[in-house]
Each structure stands twice: as structure tokens, then as C-alpha cells.
Amino acid sequence: MKKLFTVIRQGKLDEVKRLIEKKPELVHCVSGPLPKKDHGQSPLQVALKTGKYEIADYLIEHGADVNFMEADDDDPGLRAPVLFDAISAAIISLCYKRFDESETAFEYIDKMVEKGADVNKCASNGFDAMQWAVNQAELLFERPTVYPQSQEAVRKQLAKILDLLIEHGADYAAWARRGRYAQPYPGLSNKSMYLDDFVPGEGMDIDKKKEMRAFMQEYFRSRNLHVE
Fold it and tell me: Where does each ANK repeat begin and end (predicted)?
């Protein structure tokens, strides 16, 4: 089992094929406690988060669970659906101006959703796929001088991801009601943070969410999406 995760990280597709052909059930195995960064994860998760997309494709086509999420065990780390790894790859690659990689990662979001990935499944911190995408993109939105060449790309990619999720049943109203931050301290709702107009208050006269708020307001308006 450990051998499979090693060759995935090394990008050795032929070795992955050899191992899976010999023992097909390995596509459903989970990583042991070491290395800690892979603890409890599936081969598909590791392939996606390391950018080994050919291997990810092979695993999906050979029955990898597109709804896999790490088990709730003694490890206190964040647990998230495998779909979130593809979302992260599509957004975070833009931090490094890897625009082609971002498009490739988006194709795997699409592929997994088409194969039945649950677009409303939440991570252990309470984030759904919409919130995960917004949260990842906000890193770039809030730092236009750090990522100037990725500003247009991240807006287009986030819109594509949200479109795909909503078209496949993502509950945008539930997203709006959820708190902006991770449980157990979710804070103000996403609606308050991103859809309502900013109202300056005591000690809060700077709109730190200005760019993302403007984007989300226009996104909901242009798609004719309404929340109470």
C-alpha cells in the first residue's frame, strides 16, 4: 500500500498501473499515519493534491471513490472531500501563474461531479464546496499587488467553478446562511460578508472583503440567484 502512494507522488503512472492491475482493491486503500500530510487520504486525493493528473484520471476510471473523505479518527487535522483537492488545485495553481494546470484541474472537478461527486458535502470544518472555492480564491483577491497577473484568471475560474457546482445542485442558499469562518467559530454569515452591502461600524471602517464582495454580488446578480 505504501508503495502505491510513493509512486503516485513520484508521478510514475506505469508503476501505478502495475500495482492496481495486480491488486485492484488498492484504488480504495488509505494512507497510513506517515507521512502525516497524507494520513488517511486516498490515492486519488494524493494524486490531485500533487498535480499528478494522469494518475488521477487512471484512478477515477478504475473506480476511485469521488466522494471519499478521510475518516474521523484520532488525527485532529482537517478532513475534506476529494472534490476539494481538485478545487484547491484549480485555484492555488494561479498563485504561481500555472494557468494551464488550473484548467486541467478544473477538468477534474467537472469529471468528478459528472461521476457523482456530492457538491453539497462538507469538510470537517463546515465548509461546503462553494465556500472552499471562495476561501481559496480570496487569497488572490485580497492580494492584487502580489498576484497581479492572476487577477482576471482567478475571477474567471471561480465563476466557472461556482457555475459547475450550482448547475449540479449546490445549495447556494445554504452557503449564504453558513458562517464565513470554520467551525466552531463560524462568525457572520456568507450573506453578510459577501452579498450584503458593507456598512462601516465601530472599529470596522475598512471593507477588507471589498473585492470578493463585489465579485459575489455581481455573480449572484448576473445569474439571477436570490437568497433571503
Answer: 39-71
Domain that holds residue 146: 83-228
Closest CA to 82 of 98, 69, 92: 69
What length is written for the chain? 228
- Residue 13 shares a structural domain with residue 103: no
Q: Which of 70-79, 122-131, 167-176, 207-216 has the lowest mean pLDDT?
A: 70-79
Using an 8 Å Cβ cutoff, are 180 and 135 in contact?
no
Amino acid at 173: A
CB 72 within 8 A of CB 121: no
Own/partner long-range contacts of 30-34 (Cβ < 8 Å, ≥24 apart): 30/70, 30/71, 31/1, 31/2, 31/5, 32/1, 32/2, 33/75
pTM beyond 0.90:
yes
Last residue of a domain, one of 33, 65, 97: 65
Say how many domains are in the chain. 2
Q: Which residues pair with 69 in a beta bridge?
A: 81
Cis peptide bond N-terminal to 35, omega within 30: yes
CA gap 155, 203 in Å, rounded: 29
Q: Mean pLDDT, the chain, as a whole number?
A: 94
Q: From CA 189, how far away is CA 185, in angstroms rounded?
A: 11
76 found inside a domain: no
Predicted pLDDT at 76? 66
Mean pLDDT along residues 48-69: 98
CATH number of 56's domain: 1.25.40.20
